[in-house]
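Hi all, long-time lurker, first post. I run a small reading group and we've been trying to get comfortable going from sequence to structure in the token notation. Rather than ask abstract questions, I figured I'd post a concrete chain and ask someone more experienced to write out its structure so we can walk through it together at our next meeting. Sequence below, copied exactly:
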Amino acid sequence: MVMSETVFLVANGDLRLSANRVCWPAQQQAEQAVTAAVEKLGRRIQRGHDFDPVKQHGFIDSQKRGMEVFRTLPPTSPLIVVEAVWQYSHHLLHGLFTHQGPILTVANWSGQWPGLVGMLNLNASLTKAGVRYDTLWSVDFQDEFFLSNLQRWLNGQPVVHDLSHVHPLSSLKLPADAEAAGVAVARQLRSRKAIMGVFDEGCMGMYNAIIPDELLHPTGVFKERLSQSALYAAMRTVSDAEAQAVRDWLDAKGMRFVTGPDPAVHLTDAQILDQCRMYIAAVRIADDFGCDTIGIQYQQGLKDLAPASDLVEGILNNVDRPPVRSADGRILYEGEALPHFNEVDECAGLDGLLTYRLWRSLGLDPENTLHDVRYGEDYNGEFVWVFEISGAVPPQHFAGGYQGASSERQPPMYFPAGGGSLKGISKPGEIVWSRVYVANGRLCADLGRAKAIELPRAETERRWSITTPQWPIMHAVTYGVSRDQLMARHKSNHIQVAYARDAASANHALAAKAAAFRELGLDVAICGNQNGLTA
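-- Answer (accepted) --
Happy to help. Here is the structure in token form:
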């Protein structure tokens, strides 16, 4: 089927006016390049909504605005969603859910704001919703990969990506000892059950990150839905002395805080103490409700009241962390991390909890975290991913631990009340990566192997400078999975990572984790060819 001559273009953005204004020039540049490519192929492109001279940007910036836009679009028209920024998928998911014409999501290959992360989130949300779509990405929108596939899409043909790296677990044989280890942990989780503390579910628009209760409950995990207002109230009950004790503990560990005098642009001691209060309050609330894992949404909730939660999230994910006492003097979660899933990504929460318990049983460091699939470039002939996330990375993942960690003020356009990150460079080592997601009404999991590598400091600083230099970074090389294969398959903006001792223990852990997920009822696939498994 040949499409109509006119293709409509829409651009989804942030909820925060400051972010949309700052990011708009990058979006304009991407849209101009996509428009030129479409017109070069003989089609007309029309923007589906205007630039707002008052707001000074042209993004869809709310669900309300999205519904207004989709009421004006021809329901069967071909539609391109161009993303050069982080976006809130619920702003336009309603329109895409009912749109009858072909849909193409497109991102610029840039780590700047970033469109790649936004597009992966939107793609995963569409996958969960059962909406048919195609997807593409490009550095300059002039390469053969982009143009040839764009031509196919304009001709009414599906965009076909190489997914030869994906192997259903049913086609592979697991080592017996690894399978037994994974099954044992899964059965214990399902029989004893666990509580997932969810602070303000879904308020960042990540539809893909919400696991429906009926899919989650068979795994043995049940949600405790909590309010961030309760977290803020609990922060106010933490004394100055208690907050200072956490700060002193971090200082004694060698962590560095990069502070300044102006709270509007600098990290201040007062902001840090408020983050210490949040840490104590979160642990106490988790204990009150019996939570085995928690997720703080923060951004659209606490951002106008309190400093960022990111320092809190990373500390929670570390076994070695400041002690927190209850009202009756108990040390809460003594000797344990309290697994935290950033941005209340419940798929990462289930993954993180299972990983923590399984790695414990295997005698491996159990600290794990999610990262954004932020960006990547070749380095000395090898494609090296930039994995970054604004919180949740435990110091155990950094070269030097706490001594390799620093805290810098979060960017004001995202975090008006300030607060520090937990920044560091992930140490070299063998890792297992994974992603839990929802597709076809089922819980699914993709797993693979990778290595975190060390790059020269100048290259690390360059990559930080073109992404977000305040955030922790991992330089990752995925085994047997190319850049485009990961982008085509990965059903999330997030990727879960955990270290092993060496390649052998990582392969064993990968197999055990695959067995555990399968035992919990997930559809499991192994991605890549360096995984130690046989057909």
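A couple of things your group might point at:
The chain is about 35% helix and 20% strand.
The mean pLDDT is 96.
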